[in-house]
Design a protein that fits this description.
Elements (H helix, E strand, L loop, with lengths): L3 E7 L4 E7 L1 H11 L3 H18 L8 E8 L5 E6 L4 E6 L16 H5 L2 E8 L6 E6 L6 H11 L4 E9 L11 E11 L5 H13 L3 H7 L4 H8 L5 E6 L2 E2 L5 H10 L2 H9 L4 E4 L6 E4 L1 H10 L2
Parallel strand pairs: 5-11
Antiparallel strand pairs: 1-2, 1-10, 2-9, 3-4, 3-6, 4-5, 6-7, 8-9, 12-13
Helix pairs in contact: 1-2, 9-10
The protein binds zinc ion.
């Protein structure tokens, strides 16, 4: 089944929910960046969350940025998403390798370490909305749960998961077997009864990847969490790993490094390849092109 995000309400619209299966987009990100298994899991979780959160943006031009900076070996992650659930992103150290966590899982929390999560929503206003929290575990889902509670005052439960095909600890690492997640949010009119039932469900909830490895239909996630709470699916969206970079954007970035740095690159007298951070696409610049950029530099 292709990647899909389901948007739904439940319990008489007192619950707002998103569920996503994102295997293909996480695999696209892995292939683009050549990420190690633990970096694939970390980036895949944040891309999945970004895709779901992007769906809450109102306008096509709005942009959501999720940025994590930590003292662990991965250094940090940045993901952006638009209202059409098109996401892109990167890990600062995409090749990081770590032994599995005590539970035998990819150690995303250990890779990220202690630090901060920042959420920026640029909605075309003068000042973009920005909220920042201290990382709770570095496992991404728990950090976002905390972010929603503290910065957006919305009690939420976030689940995210990425499972690799096999051989999780070799450098080749294999491909992504399944990936996805959910965001369940309680609206102010949620009853005590609803909250209690949801809490019980969470306790017995297996894991995102356990459910999605059986079937990649994200409806199964909602069924497990909100079954018999009158789930009403309001929308389905196809998320994707997509970057809008082109040579012109990369030129602008090159110009912004400064005239002296540019002169230094030209001195080497070689064609250079500049890579887009977000998708790792390479753009080649000949010495003549670099000279022209330098001339246009103010
Ligand atoms: Zn790009």
């Amino acid at each position: 089944m292709p990647d899909q995000i389901i948007r739904a309400t439940a319990a008489g619209a007192s619950i707002r929910a998103f569920a996503a299966s994102t295997r293909d987009l996480v695999e696209d990100a892995r292939a683009a960046h050549g990420t190690s298994p633990v970096a694939t899991a970390a980036l895949g979780r944040l891309l999945t969350a970004g895709a779901m959160m992007g769906c809450t943006l109102k306008s096509e031009k709005d942009l959501l940025t999720l940025s994590i900076r930590g003292d662990g070996p991965i250094g940090g992650l940045t993901v952006t998403a638009d209202s059409g659930a098109r996401v892109k992103g990167y890990a600062l150290n995409p090749l990081v390798m770590l032994p599995p966590s005590p539970a035998g899982k990819l150690d995303v929390g250990g890779a990220i370490g202690a630090g901060f999560l920042q959420v920026i929503k640029d909605m075309g206003l003068k000042e973009p909305y920005s909220g920042q929290i201290t990382l709770q575990s570095g496992e991404v889902a728990e950090d976002l749960t905390y972010y929603f509670a503290v910065s957006e005052q919305t009690p939420s439960i976030v689940g995210l998961g990425v499972l690799m095909e096999k051989d999780e600890n070799s450098s080749s690492g294999g491909t992504v077997k399944c990936a996805g997640g959910f965001i369940i949010q309680l609206m102010p009119n949620a009853s005590e009864e609803t909250i209690k039932r949801l809490e019980e469900r969470i306790v017995s909830f297996p894991s995102v990847t356990e459910i999605l490895s059986g079937s990649s239909d994200p409806a199964h996630l909602l069924e497990k969490l909100l079954g018999d709470m009158e789930i009403a699916i309001t929308d389905t969206i196809k998320p994707s790993f997509y970057c809008n970079c082109d040579k012109e954007r990369v030129e602008k970035a090159l110009i912004s490094i400064g005239k002296e740095e540019l002169a230094q690159i030209i001195q080497d007298n070689e064609t250079v390849e500049v890579k887009c951070h977000f998708c790792n696409m390479g753009y080649r610049f000949t010495v003549a092109e670099l000279e022209k950029l330098k001339k246009n530099h103010k």
